[in-house]
Amino acid sequence: MAATEQESSNDNDSIEAIEQKKFQSRPETYNGADRELYCWTQTISDIDVRVKIPKQIKKGKEIKVNLIRQHIKVDLIESNEIKTIIDSDLPWPIRAEESTWSLVPGEYIHVTNQISMEKTLERWWENFLIDEKKINLKHIQPEKSMEDLGQEEQMKIHQMMYDQRQKAMGLPTSEEQMDEKHKPFRKQTTGIKAERRKKKKKEGDSDQQNASAASTLEEAKRRNPKAFSIQNPIKAQQEFKRTQDIKEKRIHLPEVDRSPLEPPPVVVALIGPAKVGKSLLMKCLIKHFTRQKLTDIRGPVTIVSGRKRRITFIECRNDINSMIDVAKIADLVLLLIDAKFGFEMETFEFLNIAQVYGLPRIMGVLTHMDLYKTMNKQLNKRKTQLKHRFWTEIYQGAKLFLMSGMKNGEYIQRDVQNLARFISVMKFKPSTWKTAHPFVVADRMEDLTEPELIRTNPLCSRTVCLYGYVRGCPIKSDTPIHIPGNNISALPDPCGLPGDRSTKTKQARRVLNEKERLLYAPFSGVGGIVYDKDAVYIELGGSHSHRPSNNNEKTRPINEYVANILSTKQTIEEKVASSQLKLFADSEPIVAEEEQEMERRKMKFAKEEDVDNDDSSDDVQEEDSDEGSEVDDDQEEDDEEDMDEQEEEEEHSDEEPEQEEFGNSWKENISKKFAISYVPSKNINWTQLVYGDHLNKTNENSDLEDNDSDDE
Fold it and tell me: Which domains are seen in the chain, by residue range?
C-alpha cells in the first residue's frame, strides 16, 4: 500500500511538473497559473492578473473593478445588466491604494496588485484566489530577478560572471588585472591642451602664493596691530563715507501697499506705430490666456490670467492725447518695434511722455522678424543693434522679445507663450501719483437717455453711464471727476494756409495772392490784439476827463489811484517844505519851516546890559540864520568871530572910568565864566538829513532874495 501511495504521489508530482512547465513557458503565467476566467503571474514583490472578457467589451465604463485589502470583484455591464466574473477573497493582503487596472479592448483586463505582507516578509503565492487550485512552489523558479536586486549586488554578480568567462578563456581575472603593473600613461607635453594645463597650474600656484601671503599678513597684523592702524585719518574718513554712501543707496523707504484684497486688473498697453502688429499680438495673447479667439477688438479687454491676477489689454492709438492718457494709467507697456524699419517717431514720443508722468514697466517686442529668414548673419547683427538701442532708451538689460515668425495668420505659439509668462509673473512698483489719486478707466458705456427724447430731438443732451475699475486710492461719492477733452472747443486758425486753387501753371501755384500774405504777431501788436507787459489796464471816463461826470449811470468809475494823482494841487517841493518828521511817538512833529527858525543859545556874562545884548543878539541871529546849513566845524569858527565882535562892542560902549574902577579883575575870571555859561548849540539841520542838499539850496536862494529886498 505504501508503494502504491508513493507511486501515485510521484505521478501527481510529474503531472504538476508538466503542467507548471507549460505555465513557466508563457510570460503571462510565469510562476503562476492559467485558469478558465483569468491567468496570473508573480514575482517576490508583486502579482499581475489578466481577467478574460468578451470581445464586445471595448470601453472602460462597461467594466467595474473593486479592489479591497484582501478581496477582488470584477463585474461586466451588458445591456444594463451586471454580470459578475470574479468575486472572491485573496489569500494574502495587498496594497489596494497602489493597485491599478487597465483594459485591452476585446481581450482582457490587466490588474496589477502590490502585495503588502504582514511584518514586511516576502512570500510566494500558491494561488490567486482562496477557492482556486494551488500550484506546487517546487516547480517554479523562486529566484529574484536582476532588477529586484540592489546596485551593489548587481555589480558583484556581473563581476563574478566576467571572472568566470575570463577563466574559461584562460585570461586573467579582474583581480589579477589590478595586480599587474601596466605601463604608465605619458602625458602630452606639447600642444594647446598642454599649454592650458601649464597655465592653469601656474594660476593655481599663484593662488596658493596669494593665500600664503594673506595668511602671513594676518599673522603680522595679529603680532603688531599698531603697524596696521589708521595712518591717514582723512583718507580713512573718505573711505568710511564712501562705504556708508554705498550702503545708504541700497536702502529703500518702505512703501505702504494700499491695494485692496482684490486688486483691480493690471493695465497692459500695446504701443507702437501703424502696421507694426499691435492688434494681432493682442489677439494672440487673449487666445493664449482664455482659449477664445476674438476677430474684432474695440476698447479695453479684461481677462483672468491667474488665481490672483487680472489683466486689461489696451491698444494705444497713434495720437498725442491717447499716448498721454495711456502713460498715466499703464502698469506695463509692450513697446512694439518693426525690426525691418527700426525705431520710429511714435516710440520716442511715448517714452518722452512716460518719463514725465512716471516711467512704467516697459518690455520691447520685435516684429516682422520673418523678413530675415535667408540672412542669418544680418539677422543676428540687427538683433544686437536694436537691443543696444533699446537699452539706451530704457536701461541696461531691459527685456526684448522676438516674434520670430507667423503661422496661419498668427504669431508662433512658443513666442507668445514666452511673452505671456513674463506678463503673468511681472511685479509692479506702485507709483506715488497713482496711489494718491483715484482714477477710473472706462471700459464700458451705456446711453441712459430716453429713446423718445432722442427721437424728437437728436441733438438733445445725453445721459451717459460709464463703467470701470477704480484704481489708485478709494474714490469718494462727492469727488469731482475730470473727463479728458471736456469743455474744449476748436477756434478758427488765425494764420491758416491758403486753400487749393485750380491753376494751370506751376508758377501760379507757388505764388501767393495779397490776401493770402498773412501776418500773425499778437505780442508785437499785429493781429487786432495788444498784450501789455504788466497786464495792467486803466480805463478813463473820457478824453481829458479829470472829474467824474454827473451821469453816473452811463460813465464808468474812475480809478482811485489815478483820481488822487489828478486831484493834487501842490508841487513836490511845496509838499516837502510842509512835511513833518516825528522822532518818537510822544514827541511833537518837527516841521521844516520851524527848524529854520530855531536859534542857537547865546552866551551870557555877569554884568551886561540888556540893551547891548539885544543888539548883539540880533546880529548873531542874522549870522546864524545864514550859516545854519553848514557843518559843525564851521559853527566853531562862527563862535570865535562872535566873541571878537562882542569884545569890540564892549570897548566902545563902556566908559573909561568904569574900566579903571573895575580894573582887570573881570578878565581874570572870564575863562571860568566862559566855561560855565557857554553851552554849544544843539541845532541840527533835520531838513538836510531827510531831504538832502536840494531843499537847502532853495532855502538859500529865498534868503538871498529876502536880504536884497531888505537892503533896498
Answer: 17-143 (2.60.40.790), 266-429 (3.40.50.300), 496-569 (no CATH), 576-711 (no CATH)
DSSP run (H or E) holding 112: strand 108-115
Rounded Cα distance, 78 and 518, in Å: 98
Here the cell at position 595 is 527848524
Q: Does pTM top 0.90 for this prediction?
A: no
- Computed on alpha carbons and rounded to an integer, the radius of gyration of the chain in Å comes to 59
pLDDT digits (tens, 9 = 90+) for 499-535: 755 544 444 556 778 888 888 777 676 655 555 666 5
203 vs 192: CA distance, rounded Å: 17
DSSP-derived 3-state class of residue 206:
helix
Residues 78-122: pLDDT tens digits?
777 888 888 888 888 888 777 888 888 767 666 654 444 343 356
- Residue pair 69/93 in contact by the 8 Å Cβ criterion: yes
> Quick one: pLDDT band at residue 268, thresholds 50, 70, 90?
very high
Exposed/middle/buried for residue 378 (C-beta within 10 Å: 0-12, 13-18, 19+): exposed
CB distance 53 to 109 below 8 Å: yes
Longest dimension (CA), the chain: 211
Q: Strands 81-89 and 94-104: what pairing?
A: unpaired
Task: Please check the confidence at residue 334 and state whether its pLDDT lies above 90.
Answer: yes
Q: What is the mean pLDDT of residues 598-604?
A: 49
Secondary structure class of 230 (helix, strand, coil): coil
What letter represents residue 485's amino acid?
Answer: G
- Secondary structure of 539-604 in the HEC alphabet? CCCCCCCCCCCCCCCCCCCCCHHHHHHHCCCCCHHHHHHCCEECCCCCCCCEEHHHHHHCCCCCCC
Is a pLDDT exceeding 70 seen at residue 614? no
pLDDT value at residue 443:
85
The HSE-up count of residue 649 (CA atoms within 13 Å, CB side) is 17
Q: Tell me, what amino acid is at 618?
A: D
Task: Give the residues across from 41 on adjacent strands.
Answer: 48
Other Cβ atoms within 10 Å of 13 Cβ, number:
13
Cα 42 to Cα 48: distance, rounded to the nearest angstrom: 6
Return d(Cα 86, Cα 76) in angstroms, integer: 10
Per the prediction, the chain carries an average pLDDT of 74
DSSP assignment of 601-657? PPP--SS--HHHHHHHHHHHHHHHHHTTTS-HHHHHHHHHHHHHHHHHHHHHHS-HH
State residue 182's pLDDT score.
63
> Cβ contacts of residue 438 below 8 Å, gap of 6+?
470, 471, 472, 473, 474, 475, 479
Cα–Cα distance between 284 and 412 in angstroms, integer? 9
Mean pLDDT (whole number) for 144-151? 63
Query: In angstroms, what CA-CA distances link 475 with 199, 260, 266, 478?
Result: 69, 13, 18, 9
Q: Point out which residues pair with 74 in neighbouring strands.
A: 65, 86
Question: 16-22 — which CB contacts under 8 Å span 24+ positions?
Answer: 16/135, 16/136, 16/139, 17/136, 17/139, 20/135, 20/136, 20/139, 20/140, 21/139
**What is the CA 51 to chain-centroid distance, rounded?**
67
Residues 595 and 580: their CA atoms lie apart, in Å, by 10
Comparing 19-28, 274-283, 323-332, the range with the smallest average pLDDT is 19-28
